Amino acid sequence: MGSAFLPAIDNTVAGNWIENMRLGLYMDLYSELNTLMNNNFVNNSVQAKIELAENAIMGNYWSDFDSPVEGCFDMDSNGMCEAPYEFYGGEDASAKSHLLLRLQT
After folding, report:
1. DSSP per residue over 22-80, as a string?
2. Strand, coil or helix: what is 101?
3. In this predicted structure, what is the pLDDT of residue 51?
């Protein structure tokens, strides 16, 4: 497992690279008011599983959602997908496109 929060309240998780795990991120039912932003989730079997939707998730890169074939359309070329990335228990409304990841690496 990449990262687990059991429980976690009012934390910021930012700037991490989580790659090649069976489960990239897990937040249990008692994890709330956390901010998950500007992380890279790359080639994890399950990118994220969050039991409670009371967390802010934004601006992350998801390797299974970085091209138009996968649903990530960057119509205005701002490096963000126009549609949210959805996963078990939540969504990232400002997911990064593959172009922005290349700039970070």
Report:
1. SEEEEE-TT-BS-EEES-EEES-SEEEEES-S-SEEES-EETTSSSGGGT---TT-SSB
2. helix
3. 87
Q: How does pLDDT run across 6-25, given as a tens digit for each residue?
A: 788 999 999 999 999 999 99
Structure tokens given for 55: 């967390």
- pLDDT tens per residue, range 24-44: 999 888 889 999 999 999 999
Angle, CA 15 vertex, CA 31 and CA 93 arms, to 5°: 65
The per-residue pLDDT for range 51-77, each reduced to its tens digit, is: 887 888 999 999 998 888 888 888 888
- 80 lies in which domain range? 3-104
Rounded-to-integer distance, Cα 7 and Cα 4, Å: 9
What total number of domains does the chain contain? 1
Q: How far is CA 11 from CA 8, 52, 104, in A?
A: 7, 14, 23
> Per DSSP, what are the bridge partners of residue 86?
91
